[in-house]
Amino acid sequence: MLKRNLEELSIYKLDEDIETLPLNNLKYLYLERPSEIIYVVRDDRLQGIICMGDVGRYSRNGEVKINKDYTVLTGHNIVKAHQIFQRKKNVHKIPVIGDDGKLLGDYSRWDDSLYINRIEREYFQDDIIKDMLKPYGTIYVMISEGTNLNGFEGLKRYLDYHSVTYTLITIGQVTDKVFDDAVCLFGSEDERRAARCLLDIKIMQQEDAMSHQLRLKLKTFRELLCEIDGIRTQSQNTEAGNKSAYIIHQLMAKGIKCFCLFDEEYPQSEYWADLKAKIADNTKKHPLSLKGPWYAKDKDGELYDIFYGDLSMQQDYMTGKAQEEICRSSNAYEREQNITGKYFNAKNGRRITSFQPNEGIGTIYLFGRCSLVGFWAEDQYTISSYLQKKLLERGYRYRVENFAGMARPDAEIDSKLLEIGKCKETDIMIFFMDRKIECLKGNLLETIFEKNDVLPQYFFNSYSHYNNRVNCYVAEGLLEMIRECLIAGTDEEVQNQKESEIGIQDVIKQYVKQKYFDKYFPGFDKDKYKRVGAAVMQADPFSLQERFSLEWASKKVDLLIVFIIEGANSLFTLEERYEMLYAGTKDMKNVMVVSGGDFIMSKTNYPEYYTQHKSQVIELNAEYDSNFFAEYIAGHLGISDRFIESEPEDEIIKIYNEKMKCILPEKGIRCIEFPETEAAGGKNNISAIQKYLKAEDYEHAFAMLPDITQEYLKGFL
Q: pLDDT tens-digit profile of 489-498?
């Protein structure tokens, strides 16, 4: 976020109340002070605004309508501004007025310089920039005249370093140069949007397609860095940064046959939309609870009988005994290692597959969510059991293993794969996904439903939750999907099968290296340090207690790596928190501040931290994240000490810390709690600081902040 004072704004002064402004009267403002937003005032009081969207919507007749429906703040309040930006994604500028309605300044969502500074500090980009700009005949860089000098100078410095040839132009030249075989580069988002407004005014009579193509030629320095980052972390034939896609692609490259059964396809078909609507309507008429068994009949019992079919005639189903056991066990699934019952059985955290042979020519692994678990089905009627039975009936000697989980199916694929360890070349993997992974052969779930003309009464509360009959249809669809890869193996062939050297752990290590270490730790040599420590912080904002903790820890190690949580539900943005943490520890020469990315307490590994939801898998996720840190992060960086903050009030963090205390020492990593000091505000002071900031009680808030954080926040007040 960026605070701008009155003299930095683009302002149009009115002499009388009017509803529209001539576009030609606005041109000079875009040229004089490039900004997306123009503030319309009369007698210094804010009357309305004009932004890029307004220019695009109302400019056909040469006039633009003054927008009088906008978000405004009375007085500078950094917390309220952040909350508005978080809540309203389409708001990019918030004007600040006084009690008398006079315009004082604004808050801007964009502060490109913070992002650029962070990237320059964390890792140095390579020569990809040249390849990215090759398609353009000429490269223009817009000269910044004080509006965003940092971005402009950073862009120039970057292009000069990589020997990229470019020509400097003014914003007034952009609308002419963009028609050339060229790209126009800007130091900031605000300048780019101002140029786009000028372009829209110039070509307002042109076709939208032409307008769109021209706009693509306007790029910011930040956009370039983001694109480069995506290219560097993107693996061949996989989605950029997608862990599941990367792992699956690597397995396929090593000979493992992988398939995908996915839910959604856009645009949605008429059949799919109609089915989902009928399921929703049915659920509304007959509300169901996932907390208990569904055996209560509607008035005529029709819904119950249709859903359970022949099963409804069995005594255990008539009394609800069967459903009670399945529901209870399903809710305990993944919390307990082993579950034993008449209808629901699990071993080592995996649902039992019925009809399994002792040995097979290969194994078919199923990965997915609750529909694959079989939430409302007994063991023999799950998808995996139906598939196993159908394989044997057709003479295919494969074992089916159900690796489904009740939560986060895509995110936990790597942890499930690690349980396998190594694979055979004859193994097959089927992934139940929300969206299709492009490198995989697959089938759309709706195709199976439509082929079998499934009834909406076969579902409860969602198209992902269905009865045993649909399970059977899905199993048949899976069999058809993989049939070309199946081998009718003999006993001799079964015995001769050996494990291939396809180690899942090695694949994940390579992913972490490419996605994280190559980006943030290029050339890192852990052997330079005898003792490396690690700490994880949110710095929201960076407090005296955190400063004291890091200062104390830095004296105990040769290098202290401070991972800042990237995806946190924070009051301040990642760039702002990074800036405060970096500036606040700059004097500690052995402290290294780096983003935790998608690997340190991320939404993928430990979602409960962000949702504050005590789900049934919270302990498993905490355990997984702790093991992930030990296996894939600490080893590469030579981390011997993990410093943690005491969290007596936060149950989510408390569970996480307890898991670390149990797991990390077993991996040879000391787990050390930070000491506390009353002078720094004591325990859990971040909550108190945020409370004071929200109440605009800056005296008490600043008393708990180091000088560098105070100065930073004062810049927003």
A: 666 655 555 5
Give φ, ψ of 359 to 5 degrees.
-135, 160
* Identity of the residue numbered 708: I
Cβ distance 111 to 156 under 8 Å? no
Instruction: Please name the helix (run of DSSP H) or strand (run of DSSP E) that holds residue 87, with its range, or none.
Output: helix 78-87
Q: What share of the chain is helix, strand, coil (3-state, %, to 5)?
A: 45, 15, 35
Q: What does the alpha-carbon distance between residue 145 and residue 150 come to, in Å, rounded to a whole number? A: 11
Enumerate long-range contacts of 671-675, CB under 8 Å, 24 or more apart.
671/642, 671/644, 672/553, 672/556, 672/641, 672/642, 672/643, 672/644, 673/643, 673/644, 673/645, 673/646, 674/535, 674/549, 674/552, 674/553, 674/643, 674/644, 674/645, 674/646, 675/549, 675/552
Residue tagged 């330079």 (tokens): 528
d(C-alpha 10, C-alpha 31), whole Å: 10
Residue 532 bridge partners (DSSP): 559, 639
Least confident of 148-162, 333-347, 532-546, 676-690: 676-690
Q: Could you tell me the two tokens for 171?
A: 């914003």
Q: Supply the pLDDT for residue 241.
A: 45
Fold of 521-714: Rossmann fold (3.40.50)
357, 451 in Cβ contact below 8 A? no
Cβ–Cβ < 8 Å for 515, 507? no
Q: Which range has highest mean pLDDT (228-232, 289-293, 382-386, 395-399)?
A: 382-386
Domains of the chain, residue spans: 2-108, 112-233, 243-491+499-507, 521-714
Q: Which two tokens stand for residue 188?
A: 């900031």
Please name which of 454, 441, 453, 450 lies closest in space to residue 480, comparing C-alpha atoms.
441
Give CA–CA dist 623/271, Å, rounded: 42
Helices assigned H by DSSP within 296-375: 302-308, 315-319, 321-332, 370-373
Helix (H/G/I), strand (E/B), else coil: 216: coil
Bridge partners, residue 275, by sequence: none
Q: Which CATH number fits domain 2-108: 3.40.1550.10, 3.30.710.10, 3.10.580.10, 3.30.70.890?
A: 3.10.580.10
Cβ–Cβ under 8 Å, residues 235 and 246: yes
Q: With H, G, I as helix, E, B as strand and everything else as coil, classify residue 441.
A: strand
The residues near 91 (Cβ < 8 Å, ≥ 6 apart) are: 71, 84, 85, 109
Angle between helices 189-202 and 23-32 (to 10 degrees): 150
